[in-house]
Amino acid sequence: MDRIVAFNGENIDQGILENVNKIIKDPAQNYNEQAMIKQNFAASKLCLWSTSIVEFNRIFKEVKPLQD
Fold first, then answer.
1. How high is the pLDDT of residue 67?
2. Cβ(34)–Cβ(48) under 8 Å?
3. Per-position DSSP letters for 27-59, written without gaps between them
4. I want to staple 47 with a disulfide (CB 3.0 to 4.6 A). Which of 9, 36, 53, 67 is the partner?
């Protein structure tokens, strides 16, 4: 839990993002909170967190250059 709380969403390795995005964007994987909640409530929340942190990273990379 501590690692999740301390995770730096601003600095995620590009290779990890590419691999995770393949899973998130693949409809056959059904990787979303609604699908996961049918399996396990805790897993659904981790799924939501992981997809949200990837989206945060994408937005951060777009906005950060505008702040400089």
1. 83
2. no
3. TTT--SHHHHHTT-HHHHHHHHHHHHHHHHHHH
4. 36
Read off the tokens for 15: 């290779």
Predicted TM-score (pTM) of the model is 0.86
Other Cβ atoms less than 10 A from the Cβ of 49: the count is 14
Q: Specify whether the CB–CB gap between 12 and 57 falls below 8 A.
A: yes
Torsion sign, CA atoms 37, 40, 42, 43: negative
Domain boundaries, the chain: 13-67
Tokens (6 digits) for 45: 């929340």
Give the whole-angstrom CA distance, residue 42 versus residue 25. Answer: 21
Instruction: For the chain, list residues with pLDDT below 50.
Output: none
SS3 state of residue 26: coil
The H-or-E segment that residue 25 falls in is helix 14-25
